Amino acid sequence: MPSATRDIPAIERALTDASVEHDGRRYVRASVACGLIGVSRSMTRHWVHLGWVRPLRFRVPRSKRAPQGIVHAWALEDAIAAARRHRPLREIRWTQSEDETIENHTGWLSYAAIARRLGRTPDAVRRRAIKLGVTHRGVMGLLTTTEAGRLCGASKPTVARWCDRGLLRHRTEPSGVRAKLIHPRDLLACVRKCPRVWKRMTPARIARLEHLAADRHDALGPPKRRAA
After folding, report:
1. pLDDT at 14
2. Residues 6 or more apart from 48 whose CB is under 8 A from it?
3. What is the value of pTM for the model shown?
4. How many other CB atoms are there within 10 angstroms of residue 19's CB atom?
5. Which DSSP state fits 106?
6. Which of 61, 100, 181, 205 has a Cα-to-Cα distance from 6 of 20 to 30 A?
7. How far is CA 92 from CA 1, 48, 87, 95, 137, in A?
8. What's the pLDDT tens digit per position in 68-88?
9. How does DSSP assign 121-176, residue by residue?
């Protein structure tokens, strides 16, 4: 969406003037396009991830501007489309609709997937989710293997083995950390079936686990079992 404070037609003309023709299409050097649009090269990596631009490499004679004999370029139409869609950070405002999307999808989709829907970076979505008070674990009411171990008095590797063997139902965190997340109700059911662990649990731990199990909705699907 073009910004009211940027002269998009002027940027388009500058990109066109800086482009060169090759095999019937016009291309503009990536570094030149970044300067004209007003973005850093690191930002354009996100554009590539979103599919806004398709970086191409061309072999050219070695020079000071191309010491390796390689030039990175974008198709002119991609550069113009990216310039129209780009919103400078100082002009970006989170809308209520975007906040609702983050609140409704956090815990079910990864930050990268939410970012693709909103046209923002995954890191920006993560920071906004934290500011809104929603996180993957908090929204789902789940525990990590470390937290589960502290509740039942077992070690983290022991809880992880329960998950790997299919004894403890769990899900994998979608944020990219790939942590095992456990519902308190499933943890309670699992430790009740383990006499050695259950006998070691203090009444306070049992009461705490039962309270968490009763206070959380069932957010998990079928148990994940290790492939044979």
Report:
1. 92
2. 54, 55
3. 0.41
4. 22
5. B
6. 100
7. 11, 20, 6, 9, 27
8. 778 888 899 989 988 888 766
9. -HHHHHHHHHHHT--HHHHHT-EEHHHHHHHHT--HHHHHHHHHTTSS--EE-TTT
Q: Which two tokens stand for residue 8?
A: 């998009």
Measure the CA–CA gap between 227 and 16, rounded to whole angstroms.
55
Q: Specify the DSSP element, H or E, that contains 205.
A: helix 203-215
How many of the other CB atoms lie within 10 Å of CB of 5? Answer: 8
pLDDT per residue as tens digits for the range 101-146? 887 887 677 788 888 888 787 888 888 887 776 766 665 677 878 8
* The residue type at 20: V
Burial grade of 219 (CB within 10 A; 0-12, 13-18, 19 or more): middle
